[in-house]
Structure formats: structure tokens, C-alpha cells
Design goal:
Length: 159
């Protein structure tokens, strides 16, 4: 039941609430950075999948996987951000995302946690040349800095 107030005409009126800027986000690590993205993009987290490499694609496109009959491209975001390639470990996993009805997987070094982030606290990155896939930063309560991962910029990631 929504709260109501009485206006100057003596009529009940619902209280207008401002839309929430709190977003449920997944934090993860890639290329020495702690990143976050909204859980609304995350379909699932998988590991141990064999990636089929494709010829004549940019190095950051690791290939494709068959996930229960759906073919997904897999992108190593570390390489998209200009970081060196590293050998995958048992913590390396693929985040299966759905970005504007486009399913794809991104390789990340490790997954941290799901947390609520107030988007109004996210600030611009204070450098002249911003990272390709990062669109903001936030200092968490523990003092760590997390960067906002821009899922929509993946389509523009190329060398």
C-alpha cells in the first residue's frame, strides 16, 4: 500500500517517490582491476567450457562456445582493455551476458560478489584517455576502487 498525503484541496494524493538509484551489481576482476556491472545483464557464470577458436578474428575474440545449443561469442575483456594475455586459472570464468538481446560471454579473471551500488555515487574516471570499456569509478566502504564496466561498449571493442 502506498503512502498518501492530503493536498490543499483536502484530497488524498499518493506520495511521489524518486526512482531508486540503487542497482544490484556483480563485482569481478580482470587485468588487475576490480569491475562491476548490473546483474540485469548477467545470465549465468560458467567455467570449464571449451572455447572453439575461430580463424581471422581479432585476438580479444577467444572464439565461441555451445551453451545448451546456443552459440555464444566469447570475448576476453582483458585484451579489449589493452592488458597482456595471461594463462587462464581455475578462477577464470565466463560471464554469460545478455546485452540488448545479444547473448555473449566475457572472460574474467575471477568473480568477487554481488553487491548493491548506488549509481549516483559513481564518478567519471579522472584521466584524459579513458579506458574503452570503463565508464565510471566508485570507492567502496572498504576503500577499494571499483570501475563500472560498460557492457554496451563491447560492440565497439576493436583494434
Amino acid at each position: 500500500m502506498s503512502e498518501q498525503i492530503i493536498n490543499e484541496n483536502g484530497q488524498e494524493q499518493p506520495i511521489q517517490e524518486e526512482p531508486s538509484t540503487i542497482e544490484r551489481c556483480l563485482t569481478f576482476e580482470s587485468g588487475g582491476l576490480i569491475l562491476f556491472l548490473s546483474t540485469k545483464y548477467v545470465v549465468e557464470i560458467i567455467n570449464g567450457y571449451s572455447v572453439t577458436h575461430l580463424p581471422m578474428v581479432p585476438p580479444f575474440i577467444k572464439g565461441i562456445i555451445n551453451l545448451r545449443g546456443q552459440i555464444l561469442p566469447v570475448v576476453d575483456i582483458r585484451l579489449c582493455m589493452g592488458k597482456p594475455e595471461v594463462e587462464y586459472t581455475n578462477k577464470t570464468c565466463i560471464l554469460v551476458l545478455d546485452v540488448d538481446s545479444l547473448p555473449l560471454g566475457i572472460v574474467v579473471d575471477s568473480v568477487r560478489q554481488v553487491t548493491d551500488i548506488d549509481l549516483k555515487d559513481v564518478r567519471p574516471i579522472p584521466v584524459k584517455r579513458q579506458q574503452k570499456l570503463l565508464d565510471g569509478m566508485l570507492t567502496m566502504n572498504d576503500g577499494s576502487v571499483v570501475m563500472s564496466f560498460d557492457c554496451h561498449a563491447l560492440a565497439e571493442c576493436r583494434y
